[in-house]
Write a structure and sequence with these properties.
CATH class of the largest domain: Alpha Beta
Number of strands: 11
Structural class: alpha/beta
CATH topology of the largest domain: Aspartate Aminotransferase, domain 2
Radius of gyration: 20 Å
CATH superfamily of the largest domain: Type I PLP-dependent aspartate aminotransferase-like (Major domain)
Oligomer: single chain
Low-confidence stretches: none
Order of helices and strands: HEHEHEEEHEEEHHHHEEHHEH
Largest sheet: 8 strands, mixed
């Protein structure tokens, strides 16, 4: 048995004729975009019509995908730290008068940020753009005080386009650009190769999947704009029976916690599964992450780490984020995996913990 790797392309047609995730998102205007960075940039383009200060307050621990739209839009960037325990943002209230937009997020399905700080920002006229990539399926994962919600579902299911942009009050003022066909085709080619790997076809390889993925991803980083989703992805997201995904991921995460396959060198970032949390992954800390990941891969479990440092601030000023960048990695507990697969995962974690 092996666990991990990219999703294959979603093939089933969800039963919901309408509603589902669309209803959960709320807001007065919702748009499906080609990627998460396209969605964030689309929200910023809308905000820029009234934001002349253009100073953004971002988490130091975040993805290059989040930072890039703010840079492209010409925003001055300030950053806040994060605590390694439960990834709680460390906001500085003294900076509220200096900023015009707060970039907010939860991590891996868990949202522990200070909601009083959000209210203070709103009262001061600071716009809030929430990245919902990690929290979209959690009960508390969509912040009602945010002006915009934006993110991607590509970490949750196999779709060519995953971007979502929500304006909570009012309508977006700008049209979206048609989807960029070369990017969509690259995504589809990646899914095709992943299916060949899954079916163990001759000549198929994980290296081939990675090569197609990164060629497509790096191209997106150079050319992203306010691109619309392809129709297939938009339709699937609209109708997806997300309650099944919610239950399966929670069951898998809860099972792994109940087996406690951890130790001093293998520590869960979120050791408790709160009511209503839908985890994107099981995230762990290890003192030597590279060695831990290699050990797990030798045991049949592929892991990832989110994210490489984006390089836009000095990590010496953000010790919490620095620790997280150096030690965190994540394992899949998603809807693809059975209880048997989770038992296999726990066995690998026990072996890793015993060897640490």
């Amino acid at each position: 048995m092996t666990i991990g790797g990219m999703f294959c392309l979603e093939k089933h047609q969800p039963p919901n004729a309408s509603g589902g995730l669309v209803d959960k998102l709320g807001g007065e205007d919702r748009r499906f975009c080609m990627s998460g960075r396209c969605a964030i940039y689309y929200c910023l383009r809308d905000l820029m019509e009234r934001d002349t200060k253009r100073v953004a307050y971002l988490p130091a621990y975040t993805c290059e995908t989040v930072v890039a739209p703010y840079k492209k839009a010409g925003y001055t960037l300030l950053f806040y730290d994060v605590s390694p325990k439960n990834l709680v943002p460390r906001f500085n209230r003294e900076l509220i008068p200096r900023i015009s937009v707060l970039a907010l997020c939860g991590y891996y399905g868990f949202s522990f940020y200070d909601r009083e700080f959000i209210a203070l920002c709103v009262d001061a006229g600071v716009a809030v753009i929430q990245d919902i990539t990690h929290s979209v399926f959690s009960v508390d994962g969509i912040e009602p005080l945010a002006d915009y919600n934006a993110g991607s579902l590509r970490k949750w299911m196999g779709i060519p386009s995953g971007g979502i942009a929500v304006k909570r009050k009012g309508k977006f003022s700008l049209p979206l650009l048609p989807p960029e066909e070369a990017h969509i085709q690259g995504r589809l080619d990646c899914f095709t190769e992943q299916e060949r790997v899954t079916n163990r076809e001759p000549g198929a390889s994980e290296e081939g999947v990675d090569a197609i993925f990164w060629e497509t991803e790096l191209r997106l980083r150079r050319m992203f704009d306010v691109y619309e989703s392809d129709p297939f992805s938009a339709e699937l997201i609209s109708r997806y029976p997300w309650e099944d995904l919610f239950r399966k991921r929670r069951d898998n995460y809860r099972y792994v916690l109940s087996q406690a396959p951890f130790g001093s060198g293998v520590v869960p970032v979120f050791p408790e599964l709160g009511e209503g949390v839908c985890p994107s992954h099981l995230s762990l800390y290890s003192p030597d992450r590279d060695a831990a990941q290699k050990k797990l891969e030798s045991l049949g479990v592929k892991s990832t780490f989110y994210w490489p440092f984006h390089g836009e601030c000095s990590l010496s000023d953000f010790p919490g984020a620095s620790y997280v960048y150096d030690h965190i990695y994540s394992l899949p507990v998603d809807q693809r995996y059975s209880r048997e697969a989770m038992a296999f995962l726990c066995g690998a974690l026990r072996e890793l913990a015993n060897s640490a």
